[in-house]
Amino acid sequence: MAITILLVDDEVELLGALQVLLEDLGYHVLTAADGNSALAIAKEKQPDVMVLDINMPKKSGEDVLQELSGLGLKTKVIVSTGYTTRDQTMKDRVLKRFPVAAFLEKPTGADEMDFVIKEVLQEK
């Protein structure tokens, strides 16, 4: 059975491109362009891994993590973000508050994402 990945990013073009590339690698890929959709899909489909953009309008990735933590899902979360000094502060804050499995810096190619997904799934 294929691993289910939920990609969450407000950059729709990036979302579509990564979906195709990851599907070519054998993953079952779901997508959400905002935090509310991500939470609805996560509740219904319970993906193995969520790759979550932290900087989104309306409901941020941190807001999604907050709500996700109360759902009791076994979904592993990989946070995706463009790297800046501000993002390092955010990264430290997120790591203190939530069980994030890994961080990816944008732009991320499918090969790097595939590697990190496999690493995260091997962790106990």
UniProtKB/TrEMBL annotation:
Signal peptide region: none
Residue span(s) of domain Response regulatory: 4-121
Protein name: Response regulator receiver protein
Keyword Phosphoprotein: yes
Alphabetical GO biological process terms: phosphorelay signal transduction system
Organism classification: Bacteria, environmental samples
Domain of life: Bacteria
Positions of modified residues (4-aspartylphosphate): 53
SMART domains assigned to the protein according to its UniProt record, in alphabetical order: REC
CDD domains: REC
PANTHER family documented for this protein: RESPONSE REGULATORY DOMAIN-CONTAINING PROTEIN, STRESS RESPONSE REGULATOR PROTEIN 1
PROSITE patterns in the cross-refs: RESPONSE_REGULATORY
Entries under InterPro entries matching the protein: Bact_response_regulator, CheY-like_superfamily, Sig_transdc_resp-reg_receiver
UniProt keyword terms in alphabetical order: Phosphoprotein
